[in-house]
């Protein structure tokens, strides 16, 4: 080993385990991925992916797999508070650093320019959250990076109680920038989260012309309704009484009061429905008994939901929120109208403590992460652009605790979508914890050190727990989701996720097919991250998976083409050859809709190109 930090070259011998391979910022990298686990509950749905790696290098890797394919980017970058929450050139940037603002801008600029290449130029959105420390500089940087696009900033209350600061205003909000790419537009929202309860009408007919014994009243709508004296619940609908039979002579039931349609003045009326229809209403929870009022001669009043309201329930205009103890429905109309959201958000669901920190405590108990976003705040940001795009691809390259993937899974559950989230984070150990680990003689790369990193300790367990509905200890997660759809967190989601770590490959190893095992996940990602993956070089010289095919021996082109012709849903055909003429000849034989990609020429050229070579 030759030391570089001395005036003259000096050679030392060290243990192999002590050597670290360093990639400089401007070095051309040839990335690969190594699987570190997966969770499967989503059948044939595409996979969400979590990549552990330096986010700038992962963004570079994604230029090969997702250039122009990302529909939404949501990021919550470091706020540059001086609290040792991010590094520049491997050192934490602290509050007394005179260059901390310029360092933050340099860090963000490099990543935003690469992220721009990934966004769908026709219709996409970039969403960035920030606070007052850097929002002015971020706004200028976004205008510089996206000069042709529409940019708006909104304020969002995330801490209604306020963050106490001596001699300063108590901060309650933060800011969210929305950069709309191409034709992207904001979708409307429902203005109010409040609701109007349905009206329960008196079951007794009101017009005097419909009293008992009249032609209009009919012969089948005067009957007893038996209500339990103990519970007040309707137990049975009786049979109609002949007009000449006094109601006092009607059959009685033990423990029940017999209720008839009697007006306050004693006039015998009729019920609003015949017994058969009344029994159907009772079964559905649309008929109930109520408290006795002094004006009523009966011990109970009977009320029901009219046919119009029942029709609204069936049409979805009325929501059934639950049922009372007597079985009757608790229902309400959804009020408000669809309007464009404003630039000032003050929603209870965006409280970061209640719906960020507390949810994380439920999902991965005992594991701390500073300032996670409200799950529902991220969900709302994405919904404004992706509600009508069920197959959207979402990227978060400051993935943190994994809230973005959690929000995407909730959107999928609400409309049956197959949106995918790509999350990028490193496995950095918190500054305070690093000190304690070093005192124990541990260092980065050691198993005990790495297990405390953000990716392994927070991100992956949170994504897995959200899908399975179980904590890392295997216990069902307590609590329920709130707001748009409410259900037990323990139900989990019917989703798939796979976890990877970024690797750095040698150019020659790639070009000679020696690094295929680490390149294989990249090929799978480019083809949609769905279905089976071809993890090994096929012995037959070719293989076809669910969404892509691989030809490693051009002499086997004919059986490969036949297999591709018979496959359904194939997107990409990777052809390994150094001969461009043979590549073109095979590409012409592929069916329409299958993209031909030459390996490893396209891969190597991509990363030389992204580094300006």
Describe what this molecule looks like in 3D.
The chain is an alpha/beta fold. It has a ten-stranded mixed sheet with strand order 3-25-4-24-23-5-8-10-9-22, sandwiched between helices. The chain has a four-stranded mixed sheet with strand order 26-27-28-29, sandwiched between helices. Strands 12-20-19 form a three-stranded antiparallel sheet, with helices on one face. A hairpin with a 5-residue loop joins strand 14 (225-228) and strand 15 (234-237). Helix 8 (403-415) packs parallel to helix 11. The protein is elongated.
Summarize the structure.
The protein is of the alpha/beta class and 613 residues long. The chain is 28% helix and 23% strand. Mean pLDDT is 89; it is low at 86-90.
